[in-house]
Design a protein that fits this description.
The complex is a heterodimer. By secondary structure, chain A is an alpha/beta fold. Chain A is 21% helix and 15% strand. In chain A, helix 2 runs parallel beside helix 3. The chains are: A alpha/beta, B alpha/beta. At the A-B interface, helix 1, strand 1, strand 5, helix 3 and strand 6 of A face helix 1, strand 1, helix 2 and helix 3 of B.
């Protein structure tokens, strides 16, 4: 029987076997932990800051709804070409005749069919009595056998609203959510560092 | 200078690991750059269903008592007017938190539970969400479970 032995190392060379072991472990770690290509339909926007919030890893069956100001409401400074801001640094916006036109609501409506892309949904349709956003929510709550959507009475809406949205516009979205019969709403925000400790209770 | 007659020694070094290390490092760098590890967002969870309209005309269930409401009016500038002093705005959200904490302590001393009380935020039309969210947050931090918004317009 031939005698097998470890290949001899040249003097001064580096054993790369442990390096490969460590790197493979790191790759497996990043593959498991990182989320690549998983979209919830969350749009990039500036959220308000809050101190207390729950880091919810699993929100359960929910629809992420993004509420933004429609870009056409921006007032552009003709001299700088940039959006005008007031003395407090807040972006100034124009009011349109129909407040529904001042909002842009997007959500990944087809996620329950396994498709994923955030689409804009109108709160109020052209035809009288047509409320597309409410229809989408009702469909998810009550189900739609034709589209393969099962009923989800405990379905929640995760509301991500831009920080400078005015309440007169936001309440339009909240009203539609209420009319659709959604019981649970989560409001997304970003963490703010506490500047002073809470008083002892 | 090559020595004539020197014995050539060949060491069995096995497969060349350098390309494997290169590929593995590239994959690692890709995953580090392309992956995302969370957005830093957190959520304020509401436990009050939003009421699009009042309960008028709907008979309450037997034995139901309406919750005690703590109404906070919020001005266009985001200033909060607490029920203890509706004319004077509260300067900072931490003061709102402190007042709400004191209110919760009083309710508990009276024997009420968190399910018997509800905080209602009543904003103005022009109040921005960035001013409302910290007030909502302050109510949750003060251990109120039922926190809701009042509608300013008439819902359909």
């Amino acid at each position: 029987m031939a005698k097998h032995s470890m290949p001899e190392m040249k003097e001064g060379s580096v054993n790369v076997t442990p390096l490969i072991d460590v790197v493979m472990c790191l790759i497996i770690f990043f593959m498991l932990v990182a989320k690549i290509g998983v979209s919830t339909g969350a749009a990039k926007m500036e959220l308000p800051e809050t101190i207390l919030g729950k880091k919810i890893e699993d929100l359960g069956p929910n629809l992420v709804v993004n509420v933004l100001n429609d870009p056409q409401t921006l007032i552009i400074d003709p001299t700088t070409g940039q959006p005008k801001k007031n003395e407090r640094g807040q972006t100034q916006r124009r009011r349109l005749g129909d407040p529904y036109e001042e909002l842009m609501v997007t959500a990944m409506v087809d996620q329950f069919q396994g498709k994923g892309e955030a689409k804009q949904i109108k709160l109020k349709g052209v035809a009288a009595g047509d409320f597309p956003f409410r229809r989408v929510l009702e469909e998810v709550i009550k189900g739609n056998p034709k589209k393969g959507i099962k009923p989800n009475p405990d379905f929640a809406v995760t509301l991500r609203a831009e920080r400078d949205i005015e309440y007169r516009l936001l309440q339009l979205v909240l009203a539609e959510i209420a009319q659709a019969g959604v019981k649970n709403v989560n409001y997304a925000s970003v963490g703010k560092k506490m500047v002073e400790a809470a008083p002892a209770q | 200078m090559k020595m004539k007659g020197a014995k050539q020694v060949h060491y069995e070094s096995g497969p060349n690991m350098t390309p494997l290390v290169d590929v593995v490092m590239v994959i690692l760098i890709f995953l580090m750059l392309a992956g995302s590890f969370g957005s830093g967002e957190h959520y304020m969870v509401s436990s009050v269903p939003i009421h699009a309209s009042g309960g008028g005309g709907v008979p309450p269930p037997p034995g139901w008592t309406p919750p005690v409401l703590v109404e906070i009016r919020v001005g266009t500038d985001g200033q909060a007017f607490m029920p203890s002093n509706p004319q004077k705005p509260v300067a900072h959200v931490d003061q709102v938190y402190k007042e709400l904490s004191d209110t919760m302590a009083k309710f508990r001393a009276d024997g009420k539970t968190v399910k018997d009380v509800e905080v209602v935020l009543r904003p103005s039309d022009g109040t921005r969400w960035e001013a409302l969210a910290p007030l909502y947050d302050a109510a949750l931090r003060a251990k109120f479970e039922k926190v809701g918004f009042a509608m300013t317009g008439s819902p359909r």
